[in-house]
Amino acid sequence: MVTFTICIPCVDKHIKIMEKLLESLEQHIIKPNKVIVSMSPKYLNLDLENEKKRLEEKFDFLLCLVQNVVTGPGGNYNATLNHVETDYTVIWGADDFFHPQYLEIMTNIIDKYKPNMICH
To answer: For the segment 85-114, what is each residue's pLDDT rounded down to a tens digit?
Structure first.
């Protein structure tokens, strides 16, 4: 079975909508093995350590990393990579939503073509 980690770079103003994205994973046919979020401050005065604790308690598949300085999407994404232990890594935007068959379709492509990397 193919394993997936979803990596999500997230600035503070997207935490609430990212939480909706995480809730939507319940509807997915194939679920990720892990979701790693790197959160950084930028717009709001949130206690990111408190947000990390709250989100990790709510979602058992979630690892939240907290950046203490303003970090762009690339820096947030790079912070997640050291924690990936699955066959494939998927990058999702914190404010995006995906079709419930997303990982099922990716699994079918991987099983059929055995690619090292998929860009889409």
So the answer is: 999 999 999 999 999 999 999 999 999 999
Rounded Cα–Cα distance for residues 119 and 117 (Å): 7
Q: Compute CA 79 distance to the chain's CA centroid, rounded to the nearest angstrom.
A: 12
Query: Which residues, listed in sequence order, are joined to residue 5 by a DSSP beta bridge?
Result: 34, 89
How open is the CA angle 51-56-61, to the nearest 5 degrees?
145
Is residue 120 scored above 90 in pLDDT?
A: no
Enter the pTM of the model. 0.96
**What is the rounded CA–CA span in Å between residue 34 and residue 32?**
5
Q: Maximum Cα–Cα distance for the chain, whole Å?
A: 47
